[in-house]
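A quick aside before the break. I want you to see a complete sequence-to-structure record at least once, exactly as it would be stored in a machine-readable document. Don't worry about memorizing anything.
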Amino acid sequence: MNNSAFSQSLLDKLGPEAVITTPADIAPWLSDFRGMYKGQAQAVVRPNTTDDVATCIALCADARVPVVPRGGNTGLCGGATPDTRSDNVILSLDRMHAIRSIDTIGNTLVAEAGCILGNLRRAAADVHRLLPLSLAAEDSCQLGGNLSTNAGGVNVVRYGMTRELVLGLEAVLPNGEIFHGLHTLRKDNTGYDLKQLLIGAEGTLGVITAAALRLYSRNDVRVIVLAAVDSPQQALHLFELLFERSGPRMQAFEFFTAECVDMVLAQTDGLRQPFADRHPGYVLIELADTVDEASLRTLVETVIGEALERELCADAAVSESIAQVNSMWRLREEISEAQRADGPHLKHDVSLPIASIPAFMASVGERIVKQQEGIRQIVFGHFGDGNLHYNLSRPLGAPRDFFAEHGARLTAEVLDEVMRYGGSISAEHGIGQLKREYFSRYKDPLDIRLMREIRKCFDPHGIMNPGKIF
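That is the input. The structure line, written in C-alpha cells, reads:
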C-alpha cells in the first residue's frame, strides 16, 4: 500500500480531526526541540482514546508502517523524532489528557499519557497530595514521555525514579492489542512485572496510554540551604552528614560548579553571586516535611552549624522566604538554558557510584584538558543519586561548529572515563538516536542480546519507534 492509500485508511478509520496529512501541517512535528534531528512522516495521528490508539497501531502493524510515539518533545536524545523514512506515522497522545481518578485513601492518581506533568502535580496538590516527579520541563513534558524515558528529576534522592512511582500501566502493544495493566494495587506477585518492561523502553515495545501513580503527603514546609564547598569531595561529606541527620526529609541535593554560576549570571537577569566570595562549587539542598516550619528550620540550622564546625562547607545560607527559595533554585535551574544561550555544547547525562564522583571529576577533567585546552567544563547534577550532567562548552572565541569537528572525540573521553568508574552513559535522558553508537559500544553484549530478543518478542516486524536505542 502506498503512503497516500495508507493515510486515507487512517482518515477513514479515525476521522480528519485526528489525522494530519498535509505536508505543511506535518512539518512542525518532524524535528526535536534542539534542532539536532529532523525526519519525515506521511501522517500525524492524534487520537482521543485508547481504542483509537489501538486502531492506529493495528493498521500500521498490518501494513508494516513504522510508528513514532511523541510526547511533549522535550527529550534531549532524539527519541521522539522520526527517521528519514517517508512512511513514518507520528503518534501523539496530546489530546489524551484526562485525569481518570484521584484516590486520597489509596493515594493514587490515574492519568492519561498526554497529561502535562505540571498539571498532574497541581491536581495532586489541590487534594493535599504530592506527585514527587519534578523536572525543569514539567510544564511542557507529558506523562507518557516521562514514563518512556524513566525520567529522574530533582527529587530522586527521596522518591526514586519514575518507575518507582508507577503502580500500573495501560498500553497498546505493537500488534494493536491493549495491555490492561492499569492496577492500583501496592502488592501483586502474580508472575512477571510486565509494566516495568514498558517503562524506559522509549516507545520501542508499545505505546503507554495511561498510568496509575503513587501519591505522597504534601510537604508544604520547605527549607532550602545553599552551601559553598571547596571540592566535590567536601560536598559528598556534607551529603553524608545531612542524610544521617535529616533522614527522608532531604528530597534534593544538587551540586554545581563555579563555572555554572558564572554562565548563569552572564546569561540571566535578576540573579547575583550567592556569596561575597566566589567558591569552587555549590550545593543546593531542599528539605521538606509536614511539621511546623520552626521545627524543620531548627533541624536544618543545627545540621548546617555542625557542617560549618566540621569544615564540610565553606559558607551557607538558609532560605528565609519563598522569594529566596525561588532565587536559590533559579541558580540551579537556569544552568541548562544559560548554556544553550551561550552556544552549541555537548551534553553528557551520566550516572556514577556516588562515592566515585570526586575522583571521576578530577580524572575526566585532566583527560579533557589534555585533549583540548580552553574547553569549559559545565558540571552540575543530582549528586544525591549519582546523576551528573558533565557538559562541555566550546572555548571562548571558538567557532559555533567547534563540536562538529571535536565533539565525538571529547564525548569518547568522557564516556570512557564513566565506564572506568563503573557508571552508566545515560542516567535519566534515555538513548534515543543520540547515544545509539555508545550504547552498542559500552553495554554488555549479553544485555544487548536479551534486549533485542525482548523487542523482537513484542514487535516482530520492528514497527515501533525504529532507529531508537538500537
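Two observations worth writing down. The CA atoms of residues 245 and 336 lie 31 Å apart. The first helix runs from residue 3 to 14. We'll return to this after the break.
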